[in-house]
Model the fold of this input.
Amino acid sequence: MTLDPEYLEYPRRGLGYDHDLYEWSCLFDRPAIRWPDGKGVAVWFVIDLEWFPLTPTDTPFRAPSHMQTPFPDFRNYSAREYGTRVGMYRLLDAFEARGIKVSVAANGAIAERYPRLVEDIVAGGHEIIAHSVDMNHTVATGVPEEDERAIIERTLSALARVSGSKPRGWLSIARSQSWNTGRLLAEAGLEYLCDWVNDELPYRMSPAAGGLVNIPLNHELGDRDIVLTHQAPGESYVQQIEDAFDWLSGEAAAAGGRMLPLNLTPYVMGLPHRIGQFEGLLDTLVAKPDAWFATGDALLDAWLAAQPAPEAA
Amino acid sequence: MAVDDPGLYDFSPYRGRPRIEWPGGKAIAVWIAPNLEYYELTPPRHPQRRLWTKPDPDVLSFAHRDHANRVGHWRMAEAMERHGFKGSISTSVALCQHHPEVIRHAAELGWEFFSHGIYNTRYAYMMDEAQERAIIEDSIRTIREATGQTIKGWLGPALSHTLNTMDLLAEHGLTYTCDLYHDDQPQPVHTRSGTLISMPYSIEVNDHYGFFIYHMTPREYAQMLIRQFERLAAEGEVSGTVMCIPLHSYLIGQPHRIGAFEEVLRHIAADGRAWITRSGDIADHYIANYMPTAGAVTEAAK
Done:
C-alpha cells in the first residue's frame, strides 16, 4: 500500500499562512486599544433574522436549522417564523428597556416580506447587517461569480429600500464563503464582514481578499452553539457568558480593549422559558462598569479611529 | 490480510502490578498536552478520510482552528505558567515554518515538543514504510532546527497510523507514543527494534471530547478533570498513575472556558500529590526505573 507521492509534498509550507487572505498577527502583541469612555469590553449583540423557504435547497449546501422533515415541514417552517413574529419582539423589548443598541443580521427577504419588522428595528436605533437573500441562498465555492454578485446586490437593495440606508456589514450564512466572497463584498461597497472567527478583535483582510475589516463574530459564544449544539440549559448559557465577560474584562485591564460578540437567534433565545434568563444576563452586563454596548458599525468606527494613520506615499 | 490484534502489547491486568513511584515520592504524574496544530486551508484529499465538510475554503472550520495561533495559545499558556505547568506539545511540525512565533514562545517557556505529523490535514493511513520514515525524519529535523530539541514522542497526525508506525518510531530513536489508550500507566510496546513505551494520553478527557463529543459545559469539563485527577491520585498511592490533559487552545482558550480551566490548574498545583511534569520526563523516568526487559514482559503475560 502506498499513497500518491503528491500527498507528501507541501507547496505552501513557509512563513505565514498557506493562503493570502489575511496576515498572521498575535492578539497579545498589538497595541492596546481603548473603547469609548475607556471601557474594557465591547459587548456586541448580533441577532440573526432569517427566512427559511418551505422548499429547502441543498445547492451549494442546506443552511443550518433549515427544514428537516419530508415536505412540507410545517413544524420547522412555522417554528422559525415564531422567532420572527414573537421572539424577535421579545428580544427588541429586552434591549430597548435597557437602552442597548444591537446589530441585526437580516436576510433581504425579511425586508421584502416583513417591512414593518425592519422599520421597527431601525426605529429602535439598531443596525442592520446584510445576511444574504434568504436561507436558500447559501454561498460556497462552486456558486458562479455572477450569481454570488446578484445575491449580494439583491440583499443590499432589499434592506436599503426598507431601512433607508445601505448596510455597512455582511454576515454570510453559516459564515460560508467562496473564493470570490471578500472581493465581491468590497465591490458592493460593504465595509466589514463577520465571517472569520479566528480572532477576538477586528483586523483587515488582505487586498486580494477584498480588504474589508473582519469583525470576528465568535460562533462558540452563540446561542445556536451553546443551546442547540451543546444542549446547555439557559442558566448555563448565562453562566458561560458571564464567565466570558469577566475573563475578558480582566484581560482588558492588562492588555487593552476586548470584544464579547454574542450571536443570538430569535427562535432560540426569544422563547418564553428562556427570555427571562436572558434578561437577567442583560441586567448583569448592564451593571458592569467595564461594558460598552456596541453595534457592529460603532465597533468598526472605534477600531478604525484607533489604527495608526497610513504612512504617506 | 486482516489483522485482528496489532500485537503491540501483552495483556497485563492493572491489579497486582508493582508500584511506580514518581520522583519526590509522588503518586501521580500530571502532564498537559497542548496540540499546536496547523490545518491547511486547501489540503489534498486523502483516499480514505475526508476532512472539511464544505468545498475549500471552509471558512468556519479553518478560522476556528486558526484562533489557536492568534489568540488561544497565549491565553492558555499564560494560565498554565501562573500555576507552574509546562506544556508537552503535540506539534504539527509545519507550524515551525508557518508561525515560528508560536513555537518560539513555547520553547522559551521550557515546553517539550513532540511530533503530531507534518500537518493535521495529512493522514498517515496507507503510507508505505518509506513515506512514513520521511515524515518521522522530517519531524525530527524540523523540531531540532526550530528549537534545538530532539523529539522523543509521537502522536499520529489527526490520530492516523499504519501497522508500521510503532516499529518506525522506535527505529528512529523515539521512546514514547501517545497513540495507545489501553492504560493509565506507561507500558512497553512491542517493536522490531529499540525501546518504545505507550504514554497515557487520557483521550477521554481531551477537550475536544469534552466539548464536542460529550457536549460538556466549561464548568462540567473542569469538574470532570478534577474528578479524574482525584481518582488517579488516590489510586496512584498504590499503583503510580499518569494523567494527561490533552488540549486545543482554540477550544480551551475561548473566553467562556479558560476561567473554569484555570481552576483545575489551581486545584492540581495545590494538591501536593502530583509530579507536574512533561511527557518526556515521565518516559525517561519510567524507562530508567521500570522498563521490563523484553523477556520479562513476555513472562509476565503468561
In short: The longest strand of chain A covers residues 41-49. Strands of chain A lie at 41-49, 103-106, 127-130, 169-170, 192-193, 203-204, 213-214, 258-264, 291-293. Chain A touches chain B through 61 residues (CB under 8 Å).
